[in-house]
Amino acid sequence: xxxxxxxxxxxxxxxxxxxxxxxxxxxxxxxxxxxxxxxxxxxxxxxxxxxxxxxxxxxxxxxxxxxxxxxxxxxxxxxxxxxxxxxxxxxxxxxxxxxxxxxxxxxxxxxxxxxxxxxxxxxxxxxxxxxxxxxxxxxxxxxxxxxxxxxxxxxxxxxxxxxxxxxxxxxxxxxxxxxxxxxxxxxxxxxxxxxxxxxxxxxxxxxxxxxxxxxxxxxxxxxxxxxxxxxxxxxxxxxxxxxxxxxxxxxxxxxxxxxxxxxxxxxxxxxxxxxxxxxxxxxxxxxxxxxxxxxxxxxxxxxxxxxx
Length: 308
What we know:
Layout: H1 2-45, E1 55-56, E2 63-67, E3 72-79, E4 86-90, E5 95-99, E6 102-103, E7 110-113, E8 120-125, E9 134-140, E10 146-155, E11 179-181, E12 186-190, E13 195-201, E14 211-215, E15 218-220, E16 229-236, E17 239-246, E18 255-261, E19 267-274, H2 279-307
């Protein structure tokens, strides 16, 4: 009887020990699961690193058509550029026109529009000409470099005369629609100085879409082979004014200069580049030489009559 009670006590003790020993084995399993969940939560709570790589937002047209004399705009949008630099390049001569907000060309018609804190980098070309047609690239200085190509087409709003001599320009405009070059019809400048001509177009209701300058049969613009040529055209309420500057005048710069608006009759002047000679000598030197001859002939005639 005693042995039976002892046996039951032993079984009870062994059962309790089993329960006590079983708990530790179960506990790590729970903790392991809980630890895994916690690790998962901690891992999930780590901030996800967003890519800061620039990217083009191709939402604007990449084939742009403009009319001669108007403003052409090529709209490039760059998302999260960071500290990267956005530039515009003209493809035909690989000329960097703008970089960031700065312009790197002597042609003042080019500029970049970038509203603060925006993705917009718009290349603007004022008074666009047919020579401006071609491919332009919006670039970001990543490694490798990112670029997006735009194609600019330029259409004429009015036919341009094939020849530029004043007598050969046959276009039908109202006589009131007339260009005028400020100053005399003959302009005298010294060699090495600057030729400055100002053309005024008095058409107020419809300003000319373009004003071009010609020296004989050559177009005078920023791309002229001669170089040293600048143009500035301003449209106001009173009309349109176009200024032509030719630096370091040469003897070969002499000749006829014509201002041709797209919607008015042209105007011309004759430019004389002098090699150290005073303009008055050229304008009036001939008459000074004729006066003594006339006086001599008159005196001879008077003397002959007196001797008769």
